[in-house]
Amino acid sequence: MGIANSHQISRYYDFFRDKEIVFTKANVQILKMDPRQVYVKCAGGQWPCLINSSSLQSAKIIIGTNSGAFLAIQKDKNMSIQLRYCFLDANGAPIHFFVNCTVGEINKYQNTEELAVVTLNFTQRPPDDLIFKIGEFLEANENFYHRKEERIDINKNSIRKLGLEKEESIIFVENVPRRCILKDLSFSGAKVMLVGVPKFLVGKNIALKIDFIDTNESVLVPGIIPRAEFLEGRKDITSVHIAFNGDAVPMVYKIHINSFITTYQKTILNNQQTNANSIVNQPVINSAADNMTPSVADAIPRQTTEAAQTVQAQPAQAAQPAQPAQPAQNPTA
After folding, report:
1. Rounded to an integer, what distance in angstroms lies between the CA atom of residue 266 and that of residue 21?
2. Residue 120 · residue 59 · CB < 8 Å
3. How many other CB atoms sit within 10 Å of the CB of residue 296?
4. Which residues of the chain have a pLDDT value below 50?
5. pTM, whole model, 2 decimals?
6. Using CA atoms, how far apart are residues 205 and 138, in angstroms rounded to an integer?
7. Residue 157 burial by CB count (10 A; 0-12/13-18/19+): exposed, middle or buried?
8. Strand partners, 181
9. What does the DSSP 8-state code read for residue 141?
10. What's the CA gap between 242 and 224, in Å, rounded?
11. What is the C-alpha to C-alpha distance for residues 179 and 183, in angstroms, rounded to an integer?
């Protein structure tokens, strides 16, 4: 997975600041959040709470109506309050931080008297760690719908950047595992090669196993085989085209595909900018004539023309005929 930079963080905040993520059990696992270390801090103490949902501008927490935090909020709704987030990095180490908030709406949770949903509005831009977590999640979901047909060819470079273990994988055809080789991946599908006959594979339900070694996760992506054909020149190996079931694509898979596509696009843009700059900064070699002042440069062709006209105006002198030699006089005898 890529490392966020300041430009990416700013872009996430600008585009997704008002988009909200509901913290379901599945989303908490994807975000690698540790709910046991989430607290609300106010009135000189801190109490555990559950984050029901969060954007980059506010959060909704669930707290008990008998907790000290709820009683303190009821006494003074204008009091300052801090919400403590806690995520886990790739090594399992906690990343925790506080966000300064003010109290917004207070409602009952599912019409119960024991729990309440309190809206906390952020007083300033939250830490970059929260922006990256929520921005990456939302961007992957958005690109899943808008860039679903962009395909990633599987080679040594893409295997490394996608965090795959290898190009070999397992495909479950009607729950029967079969070995295959990954040829390309996208948000919406994949292409694999395996031993088999096309007519016995078309229309079958499948689940493609993808192993990500960078996050130590394995996912099964369900789908169907709409098309298959023999590999050119072979009658035992089939090229299989897979269409994923859109609603069942795991979020882990979406995030990895999105990370590769956005990083690849950024690399292309950077290369184009570098090439453009190299052309602009390329030294210009001028000839001697280019370095002359306009008056001098104009004088040269004019002088040349005048000289030519002078030569043409002077008639060529006719060659003088040679004088015949005088005969020698005979001496007097």
Report:
1. 26
2. yes
3. 10
4. 1-2, 269, 283-297, 299-333
5. 0.74
6. 29
7. exposed
8. 168, 193
9. H
10. 6
11. 13
